[in-house]
Structures are given as C-alpha cells and as structure tokens.
Design brief:
mainly alpha, two-stranded antiparallel ribbon, 0% strand
Length: 1181
C-alpha cells in the first residue's frame, strides 16, 4: 500500500509530515512517486488543458470510461505543477476545481483502484498549484472523500485520507457538516488515529487530517471548541503512548511529527482553552520528552505530568530500561559519571548555503558543530532527581566512532535518515512548545520555569532543559527553535524576575525563591554566553543574541551582584562587524537592551566610561563562519585587519572634548551610521562609498537614541556632534533614516529638558550651559529639519519632526531669534490643517506644549491663535486628534489661570469674551466624548470657570453655557467613567468653587454640584476620588457659598460619614490612601466649623454631641497633632490648611473666639465645648 510524502499544500507538504517511500500498489501512481525532470511550463499547461478538455467530455456509464480515466489521470499525475520549478505555469484555480468536481462524478466507488488514483490526483493538483477552493468545490470533494471512507475497502483509506487532508487544509471550520462523521464519537479519524492502530501509515495520515482541520489562517473563524478539544485529546494521547513493540523507529517518528504538528495548530488558535492545570502539565511533560527524542544518552522515565513549583522535580533515572548497546542510536554508559566528564564539541561538517529552505535542505539539520561546555559548570539542585546520562551524554553517537568506514553505505544512509526524522520531531516539539508558551497566560506558566530553565546552583549533574538543547543539540534549526521558546518565555517576564535577588553576601540556610530566580538568571547568562562562543550558524547565532536581548531587558540587575553584564558587553563586540547582516542587527539590538534596562545602571556606566587599550573601531573583528570557534585564534584573514575610521566626534567645539572621551558605544554607532564600510575589493568600485546596510544603520540610530535617553550625562559633552549626526541623517534621501534622525533630536531635547527640571536637582555646573543649548537649537532649526517638517510625502517624518520641535527647552526657546520662534509657531499652526491625522495630532500636541512656555503664554495673539486651532481640532473625526486637542486645551486653560494669578490685568482684558465663550462651549461638548477626551475636557472646564470674571458671568450670553458646563461636570462626577475622569471632574469643581464671582448661593446648579460631591465622598470605591471630592467641598471661602443651613449640614454630614468609613475597603491598594483621606476630611470639617454661623449651631451640636462626635473628635485630634500626614491627593485644594500643628491649633483657637462672639444660641455652647476639648487634648500632647 502506498505511503506518501506530504498530506497537504506546502505548509504540510514541505515540512509538515514525513515521507515514507515504499512501492505503490499495481495500477496506482504516487503523487510524488518518481524523480521528475521539469519540462517547459508551456508543456505542463498544454497537458493540463488537453486532459481537462478530455475529462470534461467524458460521461458516466461509458464503456471505455475506466480506461480513459486511468490514462488521463496518469498523464496529469506525471506532470510537475510545482511553481518552484515552473514559475510560469498559468493554470487557473477555477479550472482545477471544475476538473475535480466533474471527475468526482465519473469515478464510482466500486472501482477502488480508480478511486485511489483520483484521490492522488486531488492531492497532487491542490497541493502543487496551491488552489483555494470555492465553497461548492469544497462540499463536492468533501462528500466524495467521506463517502469513499464509508464504501471503499480499508486498503484504499490511506490514499483517501491523503486527499482528505489536502481538501480540509485551512478549511476546517467550513467543513462543519462533515465533522461529526470524522470526529464524532465513532468518527473514522478517531478510529484510525488511536495509538492501538497497527498500521502506522493510516495513523499518521489520520493525524495529518485532524491537524489540517485544526489549522486556522488569520481572519478565519476558529474551529468549534468541541471538535478542537477532541483533536487536542487525540494528539496528546498519541504523544503519551509508547512506541509499539513491532514498529520501526522511522515510522514512529513520522507519527509523532504529525501529532506534534496537530497539537501546535490547536495551541495556535488563541488563548489556552483545554482544561485545568493538569492538562497544561501533561502537554508540557510530553513536549519536554519530545524535545530530546533521539538524543543519545538520555534514558530516563519521563513524568506524564509536570506540576508547577514548588513541587519537586520529576525527572528521575530509569529503573526499567537497561543500558543499550552502542548502536548508532544512543549509548548510556551509566558506569561513567557524566558530572566529571567534559562535553565534546561539535566538529565542523558540510553545510549548504540554503540552510533555511524546505525538505530538500533538511539534511543540513545534522549540523556537526557541537558546542563546548565544561560539566563542572553544569547546574543541578537535587542529584537524586536528575537523569543519569552517559559519559558522552547527548553527544551524537554517530560522531563517537573512530572511523566512518565502520558502517556500510546502506547502514549509514538509514541512520542518517533516522537522525533527520529525530531532528524533525525535536523541532516539532519545540515549535509546539512555542505555541503553548504564547497561548498560556504568563502567570500560569511561571510555575513551570524550573522544568525548562535551570534554577539550581552550578556544580551538580546537568538537568535536561532548554539550555541543554541550546548547548548540545547537533541541529542548528533545533537550537534556533529552542532559543525562540526561551525568548518567548523571557519576553514580558520582568515582573516575575523582579523578585530575583542575590546582592546579600551571606547565604541563608535555605534556598529562597528570590535566590533561585537569581541563579536562573546567572545560569542563563552563562549558558547563552557559551552558546554564543561556539555557534557558527548565522541564523542560530542571531537567535542567541536576540534571546540575550530579551534576558537583559527583563532581568533585575539592580538586585543582582554586579558582573553579569561586563563579560557579555565585551563578548558581543566582536560581532559588530560580523559578515551576516542579521547578526549585526541583533548585536545592536542587544546593545540597545543593555543601555535601556533600568537605566542608568552603574555597571553599564562603568562599561561606557572604560578607556580603550586599542582603537575603538579597530577592535571590531568580523568572524569567519567557515572557521569553528577553536580555529579562529591565530588564523590570518584580511577581514580581521583593524580598520580605523575618522570619527565625526572630533569635528566640533574642541572645548567640549577637553579631558572627555566619547563613550565607545557612541563612537561605534556614529561610525556605523555615517562612515563608509571597509574598502571594497573590486577595482571597479574604487572611489565609491558604500555604507552599512540600512537595517544596521537604523538599529545603530536606535541604540544611539537609547544611549542618549538613558545616559545623557555621558553624552552631553558631545551634544553638537550628535546633532551633526542627526542633521546628516535628515539630509539623506531615505525617509526611514530621516525619521530616526528626528527621533534622535527629540531624545537630545528631552534630555536637556530633564536636566533643567527643578525636581531632578541637577547642579547648574553639571547642566549644558543655556548658551550652548540655544546655539544647538539655532543650528538644528536652520538646518534640514525644515525640509522634514514640510515633507508631505512622509507623514510619519512630519510627525516626528513636530515632536522634535516640542522638545525645545523653554528657556532656550525664549532666547532664540524672533524669526526662529515665529517659524516654529507658524509651522506648527500650519500643520494642524494637515489631512493626515498623525501629523495633526503631533502639531496640536506641540502647540499644547508651547502654550505653557513663559515667553509665549502672555502673548494674547498667540494664545488666541492656538485656542482657535485647538478648538477646531476638538471637532476632528479622529479620536487621536481629539485626545491631544483636549490635552492641549487643558494646558491652555492652565496658562489662563497662571496669567490670572500673576495679576496680568492686560492679558485678561485683551482676551476676547467670545473666544472664552467658544472655549467653554467646546469643552462642554468634549466632556461627553470618550474617556480619554473627557478627562482633559473637564480639566479645561474647571480652569475656565475659575478664570471667568464677574463682568463676563453677568452677561446673558454666558448664563446658559455656564449652567451647561457645571452640569457637565456634575454628570461626569456621578458617572461610571474611569476613575481618572471622575478625579479630574472633582478637581474641576474645586477649581470652579474658587471663583468668587460664581453665584454658588443662588444658582440652580449649585445644589446638584454639592450633592454630587457629597455622594462621591461617601460612596466612591476609589479613595483618590474621595480625597479630591472632599478637597473640593472645603474650597468655598465664605459661608454663603454653601447655601442655607440644610445644605450646609448635608455637606457636614457627608464629610463626617466619610471620615467614619475611611478605613472600610476591600481593596488593599486603596487602603494606602486612607491616611490622606482622613487628613483631607478632617481639614474639611474644621473648615466648615470655621465658617459656621449661629443658624448652623443646632444641627452641628446634634452631630457633635453623640457617638458620631466622639468618632470625629479622635480623627480631628490626630489631624491637629499631625499624627497622620497627607501623602496623596490633598494638595492645593486644602484651602486655608495650615501645615504645622502649631498653626492648626492657632487657627482653631481663633475659631473658638469667633464662635463665642456669635449671638447667643442655646446649641452654640455644645460646639464651643467640643472645640475647647480638642484644644485641651492638643495641649496635653
């Protein structure tokens, strides 16, 4: 019976399933039967057209139908339609569909040899021509193959299933009407795929069918969870089942490969949906076992389930399997302890240049470069649970023989093919593990780290982990897959690894979890450094360096002993000039990770400052991958000749370099960006300049930006040189280079701004002098940045250029020439009318920054122009534009209040009332927009209500907009919006209450405003919102603002209730704000008492006389004594708050005197006695 190569189109045909080449039965022709010499594509087209016309002309029940079909099918099967060989083939997919549909009506089920040949034809045409079937063709062919499985003999089912796997490829969800027959309780695929199936070829093809059913292409609806789970269980059961006693290893590997492929497709469909933790542990256990399929020297009992930490390891020595004889498969050698034996290194074998192609190149997987590793540095924690490996454990046994002539040619070929299939199984297991890592929630996966990443101190026998594969597997593709899995596990693990710590010098008597994690990080560094040293495959080398970048980006080096980064930093320098572009780019990516992780890091600062013993650029030696790592020393190569390039860092302002040398990483990046490559060997290219490839230059620019961002103090003395690099990039024609040049300028500007921020406390003598900053920006703004701002063909470049303009230091901007300032403002105002929303967003944001510049905020014309521009942007249909416009409007209104508080009378009088009215109305409308717009819109409303003068509020045109604005704030406070929005709304009401011109005592909206704040202060789950609402309630400076006695007491009651419940929360994150909440509430209550009048005494006395008063008294005493500080949220809204205990007590004494002077009232004494009791308690302290 025939066994065929792939069971589907290219994704499955080329690398998805194995190929068993055995003789075909009489009368059948395998889809890939004989080696084929490609003919001219026109011959294949003509042959297909001839057969197509003949078959279309045939009708059922013809006397010669069988013979004619046999002949036509043979002709079609004899042609090679693979477009790799015949790229000019022009056969239309609809013609293939029509032919197959018509042929299915001509082949009766009782003529089984013809059925087999038709199924082979289905696979042949659909697979090689990559035909995407229409729905009708899919249904016709699915009906045919499913009926064939029901009516034809069992010997035909292998070919029928081959056709079925091709038909369902990427069409699983569309075949739902047939899935019950295939995957139901007694489904044919489940029957044939069971591990008890004697025919491994049937089992393999059935598993391939199930895998193709599970395969999902992007944008396609997923397979129903019911059938997906059925397939998942079948794949998992197959992988857990032992090899049948009479089965050949090669056929068994093909079955495993199909099951792994199917499991990978199941896991690639999205998030994990396959049951509890035991299911995940079962999957991980079998994948770990398959990771070492065919690895010599591994003879252990694998666990059926892995359990998350802190359960003990589950690998243990096998008690049932005796040591095997030294066949080519493996050796155990248990009498030789592997812990005292060094691993052998892979020798250099043959290697094709097209290593990454499909099956025809898979022999390259037997890369014969095994990596060296000293077993004394192997890590293990519990020796009794570690597998017993042979003395040459995991070293390929086919390389342990002294002579290749010990095997005959047939034996050598068979063993080579078996090794190839073992490699494919291991590769499939790792790809499946990669899919599992991506589909499972990170938090659930962390418990299994110790099963795949060593977490034990160095010194014991080696564990079997991903690092074992990375260091020992002979196949570069398998090693690359293992590195991809490790990278996926490290990606996003910063929060998990943040627990790691080993900075303490003394070791405790037990191994803590934090120390185990730290050990894992160190072992990862050690093993990946060894892998980097030994690897010669450029593709795998790229993966190693990328994996190191993920590790560096997520490891908490501030909590680890120094010394991990220094060896790595120096080791990867030799790869900067590596001949493979991808390797060079990945090296720069790693350097970028090194200068961004927890920057500034002291160890990295030292590395950047280290003087060079030789020329910086002369130390970069590209490695020759044709030499192993052992052979590189002492071998002359023209590529290793030191190259010295004139650095542009010495060309500007010599005073800046006095006693200062640029960090070597900065020099290296500048060289890669601006200097031509090493001299060309071809004489015809003499005199031409060839720069580094574009990906290298872009990544070097990225690293330079990261260096400026994280270590600006080391780069600031070379400000002008870096600026020249940016200018040179902006002068080039490539838009991506220009884009990264503007981003570098943005980082420079941001670094300067950070230096001048007061909260950073940087001494003036350590900052860049302001005159140099002005000179720098003058040169930048007179250079090619203008062209980038006007480059409408590249909106992303314009966007980045706008960001660069917004990063100018405000103090420097004020000292720029007037024409330069005018140019910046004019360009930004003009770009807000761009049709591209990204450009418009960046321009509006930049204006929102410029509006707070001291030199611009008092310019009424600029404020008016900016306001009109922002208001127009708030009406834009792009939500991103509206978000930035709302933020800029908030900044603009902040500027209005700053000008008001600076008593800039001329500014308030010159600003148009109609413009203010338009701003108020637009902000009110924006407060009903999305939350990201709303949060800044309400901030703007609060500022505007605070800024408006009484003469403006008295105008009838402002009456309704004023009411609408306040009611918008009230609605936002009471809404279910995100807490930041509600916080801003409470803040806005507090700002509004500060305006004495607002008619709080008489306005119809006043009651709603106070009620909303009272409701929030007692019921909101978020304590920061409660703090802000309490602060707003304490803002009004006059008693009349609170209205009548009833409203005044409602405010009092709400504050008192909130104070009593200030510790009632189920959220620990909120509990940390409870002290600040009590501080603000206490201040608010004392503020109300300081404003209370005689008609308020009755209600206050009733509240203070009972148990409520006693509870209030406890908190007020703590406030007066300053026993609880305001750490969060009680900032400037604390109107009239005294910050020292003495000032608070003094204010309370003045209030007692004021109350005694009030007209006689029977309840007044109760309130006075309460306050005097507070004073007495403070005096006792």
């Amino acid at each position: 019976m025939a066994a065929h190569c792939s069971t589907s189109r290219p994704a499955l045909g080329s690398s998805g399933s194995g190929c068993q080449e055995v003789a075909s039965p009489p009368g059948s022709l395998s889809a890939e039967a004989a080696p084929f010499s490609p003919r001219d594509s026109s011959d294949a087209d003509k042959q297909f057209s001839h057969c197509y016309a003949k078959i279309r002309g045939l009708r059922p029940h013809s006397e010669l139908l069988r013979d004619q079909l046999n002949l036509l099918f043979d002709k079609l099967l004899s042609e090679n339609y693979n477009k790799t060989f015949n790229p000019d083939i022009s056969i239309r997919p609809e013609d293939v569909c029509t032919l197959l549909k018509h042929a299915s009506s001509l082949v009766p089920f009782h003529q089984e040899h013809l059925v087999v040949k038709f199924c082979q034809l289905m696979h042949h045409l659909l697979n090689q021509l990559k035909v995407i079937m229409d729905e009708l063709t899919l249904n016709v062919l699915m009906n045919y193959v499913t009926w064939s499985l029901k009516k034809c003999s069992a010997w035909t089912h292998s070919d029928v299933l081959l056709a079925l796997s091709t038909v369902v490829y990427e069409n699983g969800p569309q075949c739902h009407q047939h899935l019950e027959h295939l995957l139901g309780e007694n489904g044919v695929l489940l029957e044939y795929s069971t591990p008890t199936q004697q025919d491994l070829e049937l089992q393999r093809v059935s598993l391939n069918c199930m895998a193709n059913i599970c395969l999902r292409i992007p944008g396609q609806a997923p397979l129903d969870d019911q059938y997906r789970l059925v397939c998942f269980r079948a794949f998992l059961k197959t992988l857990h089942s032992p090899k049948p006693a009479n089965a050949e290893e090669l056929f068994y590997c093909m079955v495993l490969r199909s099951a792994l492929k199917g499991l990978q497709y199941c896991l690639s469909g999205g998030r994990w949906k396959f049951g509890s933790g035991d299911d995940l542990g079962s999957v991980l256990a079998v994948l770990k076992q398959m990771m070492f399929q065919g690895s010599p020297g591994v003879s252990i009992e694998w666990p059926s389930v892995l359990y998350p930490a802190p359960l003990p390891p589950y690998e243990g020595p096998s008690s049932s399997k005796p040591p095997e004889t030294p066949k080519p498969k493996s050796t155990t050698g248990r009498n030789k302890p592997s812990a005292n034996k060094k691993w052998k290194s892979r020798g250099k074998g043959k290697k094709n240049a097209t290593e990454e192609t499909k099956d025809k190149d898979d022999d390259d997987d037997e890369d014969s470069t095994t990596k060296p590793e000293a077993s004394k540095e192997q890590c293990a924690d519990q020796t009794e649970n570690v597998p017993k490996l042979s003395s040459q454990s995991l070293y390929p046994s086919w390389k342990q023989t002294s002579s290749d002539s010990e095997l005959s040619d047939p034996e050598g070929g068979a063993q080579s093919k078996l090794r190839l299939y073992h490699v494919r199984v291991r590769q499939g297991a790792l790809l499946c593990l990669l899919a599992a890592v991506k589909s499972v929630e990170k938090r659930s996966l962390y418990g299994y780290w110790s099963s795949f990443i060593p977490d034990s101190p160095i010194g014991g026998p080696p564990q079997l982990t991903l690092l074992t594969t990375i260091l020992k597997d002979p196949s570069p593709k398998v090693r690359a897959c293992a590195l991809q899995v490790l990278s996926a596990m490290l990606d996003g693990s910063r929060q998990f690894l943040a627990v790691a710590e080993d900075v303490t010098s003394s070791r405790p008597s037990y191994t803590s979890f934090s120390f185990s994690l730290a050990t894992s990080v160190r072992e990862l560094h050690r093993s990946l450094s060894l892998a980097l040293l030994a690897e010669t495959s450029p593709q795998t080398l790229t993966q190693i360096i990328k994996c190191l970048a993920y590790l560096v980006s997520n490891a908490p080096y501030q909590r680890l002993k120094p010394g991990l980064l220094s060896p790595l930093w120096k080791q990867i320098r030799s790869y900067v000039r590596y001949r493979d572009v991808d390797v060079r780019v990945s090296v720069l990516t790693l350097y970028g990770a090194l200068v961004t992780t927890q920057a500034p890091l002291s160890e990295v600062q030292l590395l950047l400052r280290q003087p060079e013993s030789s020329s910086i650029l002369g130390s970069y030696m590209p490695q020759d991958t044709s030499l192993s790592w052992r052979q590189r020393e002492g071998v002359p190569s023209p590529c290793r000749t030191p190259v010295k390039l004139d650095s542009p860092l010495n060309s500007h302002t010599p005073k800046e370099d006095d006693g200062t040398t640029a960090p070597w990483l900065l020099q290296m990046c500048v060289s890669l960006i601006t200097q031509p490559r090493e001299s060309l060997s071809d004489s015809e290219d003499a005199g031409t300049y060839v720069f580094e490839p574009l990906p290298v230059r872009l990544q070097a620019l990225q690293v330079l930006s990261y260096l400026v961002r994280g270590y600006f103090s080391l780069c600031q003395s070379h400000l002008f040189e870096i600026g020249q690099v940016s200018a040179r990039c902006l002068s080039e024609t490539d838009a991506s280079i220009q884009l990264h040049g503007t981003k570098l300028l943005d980082e420079l500007g941001t670094g300067i701004i950070q230096q001048y921020r007061a909260e950073n406390n940087i001494p003036e003598n350590q900052r860049i002098p302001i005159d140099k900053v002005v000179t720098f920006w003058s040169e930048v703004l007179s250079g090619p940045l203008n062209a980038a701002l006007q480059n409408e063909q590249h909106p992303s470049l314009q966007t980045s250029a706008c960001d660069t303009l917004s990063s100018i230091l405000p103090q420097a901007f004020a000292l720029l020439p007037d024409k330069t300032q005018l140019m910046c403002v004019t360009v930004l105002l003009g770009l807000t009318y761009s049709e591209n929303y990204l450009v418009k967003t960046a321009a509006v944001r930049a204006l929102g920054i410029y509006i707070i510049f001291p030199c611009l905020r008092e310019d009424v014309m600029f404020v008016a122009d900016t306001a009109n521009t922002i208001l127009a942007a708030l009406e834009d249909r792009s939500p991103n534009v509206r978000v930035k416009a709302a933020w800029s409007l908030g900044n603009l209104t902040d500027t209005l209040t700053v000008n008001m508080e600076s008593e800039c009378v001329d500014f308030r009088e010159e600003l148009s009332d109609m413009l203010l009215l338009k701003m108020l109305q637009t902000a009110t409308r924006a407060s009903a927009d999305k939350d990201r717009v709303k949060s800044n819109a309400v901030r703007a409303l609060g500022n505007l209500l605070h800024f408006l003068r009484g003469s403006q509020l008295s105008r009838s045109v402002f009456k309704q907009p004023l009411e609408d604005a306040v009611r918008a704030l009230v609605k936002t406070v009471q809404s279910e919006a995100i807490m930041k929005v509600r916080w801003n709304a409470c803040y806005a009401l507090g700002k509004a209450f500060r305006n004495p011109a607002l008619p709080l005592e008489s306005a119809s909206w006043s009651h709603d405003a106070f009620s909303a704040l009272c409701n929030v202060v007692t019921s909101c789950k978020n304590f920061k919102v409660r703090i802000k609402s309490a602060a707003a309630l304490s803002v009004p400076a006059q008693r009349r603002c609170y209205g009548d006695a009833a409203r005044f007491f409602c405010v009092w009651q709400a504050l008192a209730t909130a104070l009593e419940n200030s510790e009632d929360t189920n959220d620990f994150l909120e509990y940390r704000y409870s002290a600040s909440l009590r501080h603000t509430l206490s201040q608010a209550l004392l503020h109300l008492l300081s404003l209370s009048q005689a008609h308020d005494m009755a209600a206050l006395a009733k509240s203070l006389a009972g148990a409520e008063g006693a509870a209030i008294r406890v908190h007020l005493v703590k406030y007066l004594r300053a026993e609880e500080g305001a750490t969060e949220g009680a900032e400037e809204e604390r109107h009239g708050d005294s910050f020292t205990p003495q000032e608070r007590v003094k204010a309370l004494e003045q209030n007692v005197v004021r109350l005694r002077a009030l007209p006689a009232e029977m309840n007044k004494e109760t309130v006075v006695d309460f306050l005097e009791d507070l004073l007495k308690s403070c005096d006792e302290s």
